[in-house]
Amino acid sequence: MRLITISWKNLLSNPLTFLLNCLLISFGVGILTLLLISSTQFKDKLENNSKDIDLVVGAKGSPLQLILSSIYYIDFPTGNISLTDAQELARNPMVKRAVPLGLGDNYNGFRIVGTDTSFINLYDLSLAKGNYWSKEFEVTIGASVSSSLNLKVGDKFFGSHGLTSDQDEHKSHPYIVSGVLTLQGNVTDNLILTDLSSIWSMHDEGEESEHTSTANSEAFSHGEAAVESKDTGSKEITSLLIQYYSPMSVVLFPRFVNKSTNMQAASPALESARLFSIIGIGIDTLKWFAGFIMFIATVSVFVSVYNSLKERKYDLAVMRIMGASKEKIFLIIIMEGVLLTCIGSIAGILLGHFLLEVIGNSQGVTQTRLTGVYLMFDEIYLIITGICIGIVAAIIPAIQAYRSDIAKIISKN
Amino acid sequence: MISIKGVHYSYNEDNSFSFKDWVVNAGEQWLLLGNSGCGKSTLLHIITGILAPDKGDVVINDTNLYHQLSNKERDRYRGQHIGIVFQQAHLIKSFTVEENLIMAQSFAGLPVNKTRIDEVLKSLAVHNKTKSYPNELSQGQLQRVSIARAVINKPALLIADEPTSSLDDTNTKAVLALLMSQSALNQSTLVVATHDKRVKDFFSNAYLM
């Protein structure tokens, strides 16, 4: 009979204590797992979606809002900028690539993004079916859009004004799906891409009157579409995604935009870091909370192993009589602690993944949706931590069992 | 053969024991008789290798327990060659009867032998309790299983410490008969330590303390 079997049977002899300790450990590890995989996914998403974008230029306002709306597509844009100004900026010698974005419409919550073919190169997109948009009102849709809305090449739909509302439909011009992208693993999976001219045509003066009266006022004020300005006749876009030729431009170019134009430059790296540090405060608090639960679990495992040792003092002495060495008795006790915390840790990791999947499924914003089906190598450290806690909690009882005087125990009995 | 020579043990200045020399031949059945506090348990603990004497030799089948074996080797030797029956059965309650016997084989460093387990349980008429837990057994069955655990590894020496103290005459006879038959069956030397004078007539050899 293996020592681990003996330890396991001993644990099961007190099922309620075993369950309570497992619950405590799994709760602590579960929170840590949830934090670990959610913050990693969130960070990955932030980095993955902005990795080739050095700067975002848009209307003045909150730089974080500009980044969130133009890179992650989860907030309203700060406003529009003049296409002429944007084109002038794009011709700056420091700029390697400038990708225009025109936002303002959605279809069932998926954003319709007016852009040009440089967007394809920026995100290194590839097609699963069909072709990229080539005419006005043709769209190429992301893989998640296709699967979620069951859209395929040739399908038609009406876009809605605003970024989240689907009530104010542009009924005069249906979009037609010309192609479906392969799964990219970034924000483009959730986008409907079209030519900028589609956005401009959709928001012509005549079209404006066709908006239904239930238009979301918030969508109008913040999510104002990139349109042709009625006052000047010049076209507008929402923002410009910029890549530099040289890293040297990191300091000079944003300063130039912010000081010399009426536009705003925002760095995705800086704003993402700022966003993550804001969220980080909450994550740190939860980590302390999880750490506290783990501490309570350690004390609880110690108390239960210690108490069970007092109850089983004679059992252990009988094992010694049967030929078990002191070292074996020590190992049996240590393994009880390790088994308990190991099972609790594995249950906690599963719990963390399950909770994150539930949270992910209840998230409204598809662009930042988290998933519990996400394995990380670092999770192994949670199990190792669990094992260490088991050893720490069981070491004192194990030493006591090792040192116990069996002759005395048997005589007393 | 078991030999005890010049064994002395001292708990403190006021409480020390010097045991007279003793030689037991293989297969003999002995009574170790003495009143409470005379040092019976101390001698038993010394013979079973769980209490090292201050001086003297304990030799079982040519193996000097305290001068030839390390602590770890002595533990294993005890598991393989010495079977002990206590006044109370004290089986490990979270394990079945069979698992208690398997544990005795495993701790002794022997391979698990289920045929041997069946054989011993059958000889003690508790073979129908293999999968039962100790709390499902009667006192008599517990006593039989504890004897089974002591003889499972065919020990050279079978020791019973006060096996009859809390039993009536009928049960005393029954337990002694079991111990004697099992020691004969397994070719083990039997030593019964007790203060119970009722058992005196059952033994032809006695070590009086």
TrEMBL record, chain A:
Keywords, alphabetical: Cell membrane, Membrane, Transmembrane, Transmembrane helix
Keyword Cell membrane assigned: yes
Annotated protein name in UniProt: Efflux ABC transporter, permease protein
Major place of residence: membrane
ABC3 transporter permease C-terminal domain sequence ranges: 289-404
Subcellular location(s) of the protein: Cell membrane
Stretches for region Disordered: 205-231
Any single Gene Ontology cellular-component annotation: plasma membrane
Source species of the chain: Arcticibacter svalbardensis MN12-7
Residue ranges constituting the MacB-like periplasmic core domain according to the UniProt record: 19-200
Domain of life: Bacteria
InterPro entries assigned to the protein according to its UniProt record, in alphabetical order: ABC-4/HrtB_transporter (IPR051125), ABC3_permease_C (IPR003838), MacB_PCD (IPR025857)
TM segment ranges: 18-37, 289-309, 329-356, 380-402
Membrane topology, as annotated: Multi-pass membrane protein
UniProtKB/TrEMBL annotation, chain B:
SMART domains assigned: AAA
Keyword annotations from UniProtKB, A to Z: ATP-binding, Cell cycle, Cell division, Nucleotide-binding
Domain of life: Bacteria
Domain ABC transporter: 2-208
Any Gene Ontology biological process: cell division
One GO MF term attached to the UniProt entry: ATP binding
InterPro entries for this protein: AAA+_ATPase, ABC_transporter-like_ATP-bd, ABC_transporter-like_CS, ABC_transpr_LolD-like, P-loop_NTPase
Keyword Cell division found: yes
Record flagged with keyword ATP-binding: yes
Pfam families attached to this UniProt entry: ABC_tran
Cellular-component GO terms for this entry: plasma membrane
Name the UniProt record assigns to this protein: Cell division transporter, ATP-binding protein FtsE
